[in-house]
Specification:
Layout (H helix, E strand, L loop, with lengths): L6 E5 L4 H12 L3 E6 L2 H12 L5 E5 L5 H14 L5 E4 L5 E2 L7 H29 L2 E6 L12 H20 L6 E8 L6 H4 L1 E2 L14 H13 L4 E4 L1 H12 L1 H18 L30 H27 L5
Parallel strand pairs: 1-2, 1-4, 2-3, 4-6, 5-8, 6-7, 7-9
Helix pairs in contact: 1-2, 1-7, 3-4, 4-5, 8-9, 8-10
Length: 327
């Protein structure tokens, strides 16, 4: 039986969805261990969370460094005492043609997004096994099902996370009170794309519709109370997953065409490594300021556009099949 006041570890907590999660779990009355590479932002966030009457520990850690994650787990266990929930959330993004993007950048994307989650699970599982219970929640994104053109390393990390989690769930099947939960949100209104490494030389913005990261945080909170193996967050994520599962080639083709079309008309900027190797001094709010289709009519408009794309793919495929030689 999990104790009433839970100890929750959140990586990548200094901005975006991680910051939203910290706020939501603080309102729920949980003890928090918040971590990122940006100690100044963590300190500020801790003060905000403490206003809800909860205890907060801040730990500076780069999840791509296993030793730092080991220290994070030890500090959290001592603070708890014990750890109840570990949320793998820290992530980075690099956009650009694969052969133009430096390999050291792609390697660091994999170290943060994939190995960072593996480091977290590896560090916390001994504590969970010792106490006989615990929950790991992996915030993966729809990128685990839908490849991102011009984001090859990002896609590799997210597809890799899906396989890692599936294998780990199978391995832990003899521990009925240890749960591995995966969350797959659609595109979010966070500062993430402002932090991205960018080798396209074009200004980037997320594809609509973008969802409020607080919605993700509330879904993660629900997972922490009612754990289940997989959660899709947002109708767009369900639609895109279905589209790629049924028509992978067509979905890839549409995604590539949309991005290439956008890049042709986007404003020019200088290339940047973003926050791949170190945190940035800007863009540390929960929201990115991109706006979201909060009004029902706007949301229906974007969703309808997605459905039309999907329907178009179905019609194209049906037409192609009808033209195949009989017999």
């Amino acid at each position: 039986m999990m104790k009433e006041k839970r100890t929750v570890v959140i990586t990548g907590a200094s901005s975006g969805a991680g910051k939203a999660m910290a706020t939501v779990f603080a309102q729920n009355g949980d003890k928090l261990v918040i971590s990122s590479r940006n100690m100044d932002e963590l300190t500020s966030l801790a003060k905000e969370c403490e206003l809800f009457g909860v205890e907060v520990l801040t730990v500076e850690a780069d999840v791509s460094d296993y030793k730092q994650v080991i220290n994070l787990a030890a500090a959290a266990d001592n603070f708890g005492p014990g750890i109840d929930i570990w949320i793998n959330n820290a992530g980075v993004l690099a956009i650009g043609e694969f052969d133009v993007t430096p390999m050291e950048v792609s390697e660091q994307v994999l170290r943060t997004n994939l190995l960072g989650y593996m480091n977290g699970a590896h560090a916390v599982l001994p504590y969970f096994k010792k106490h006989g219970s615990g929950i790991i929640i992996n915030n993966i994104s729809i990128g685990g099902f839908l490849p991102v053109p011009y984001g090859v390393a990002y896609s590799a990390s997210k597809f890799g996370l899906k396989g890692f989690s599936a294998a780990l769930k199978t391995e832990l099947s003899r521990y009925p009170n240890i749960y591995i939960c995966d969350a797959f949100p659609a595109f979010l209104d966070t500062p993430g794309i402002q932090h991205a490494a960018n080798y396209t030389r074009k200004s980037l913005k997320p594809a609509p519709p973008v969802y409020d990261p607080m919605r993700v945080a509330l879904s993660i909170l629900k997972l922490s109370k009612q754990p289940k193996p997989q959660t899709m967050i947002g109708s767009t994520s369900i639609l895109l997953r279905l589209s790629y599962a049924i028509f992978p080639a067509i979905t890839r083709g549409i995604a590539g065409a949309v991005i290439r079309s956008y890049l042709k008309s986007a404003p020019d900027i200088e290339k940047t490594n973003g926050n791949i190797f170190s945190p940035l001094p800007f863009g540390n709010a929960i929201h990115g300021g991109w706006g979201m289709p909060g009004k029902p009519k706007a949301h229906r408009k974007y969703l309808a556009g997605g459905l039309l794309l999907f329907a178009g793919a179905v019609l194209l495929t049906a037409k192609s099949l009808s033209q195949l030689p009989k017999g």
